[in-house]
Amino acid sequence: MTPSENPDPAAGPAASEPRKAQPAPETPSVANLAEGYAAKAGLHRSKNGNIDVLKSAGGVQGIAETIVPGLVFLVTFTITRDLTLSLVGALAAAAAFTVARLVQRRPLTQALAGVVGVGISAWLANTTGKAEDFYVPGFFTNAAYIAGMVLSIALRWPIAGLLFGFIRNEGLDWRKDPARVRAYRLGTWVIVGVLALRLLVQVPLYFMGEQGLAALATTRLLMGTPLYILGVWVAWLITRPAVPAVDRPAASRPGGPPQP
User: For FRET with 137, which of 87, 120, 131, 156 sits at 20 to 30 Å CA-CA?
Assistant: First the structure.
């Protein structure tokens, strides 16, 4: 035996054993990506297994973060007719929520997104000198969401299924059931309808100029988070899985005992 073939006794038994190949890192599957998307979307499940709509919207503070800056802009401009002061007020309101989250040591994602959104809107309105342009970025954001959801329906990966499927512990198994796919496509269309309704109502008000500003700002507040929450809740209800017959109460099954 050559020296290279003779194991070193001091090295222990492990040295004489061939090294095992390290497993290759797993490539994220579609299920992993979908689950991550559902988690990042911020949807939460309540204790009874339903979607917690209020918590999913960020709670009371999260809803306030989406409403207050626009409300401050509307009230300030209505009273003062000073565009610069109104834009500064809206930015200050958005920044205040970020500071509040810092003090509370809560995640800053939603608040920072709000500051960025208000900042872009304020920059555009200040550049054009038109108060109604404060709401233009929201139109493009809305249209982008509509396009993404319609694309998900066309690809048979409806967004409602990706979001609700993991809350219901369905994972991606719903894609194996044509009835569930149809239900989630319908649920996604409901959310698309909410987003499209915003544009149908608000865009004509925008083209009215300053005369339609008050109505545009008011509908933006009413058709923002509150209407979106309603749309998500309706989508959740109409995509509920059918209850198997074995899980129904005996009185509700054919041939079961009559109800008292």
Answer: 156
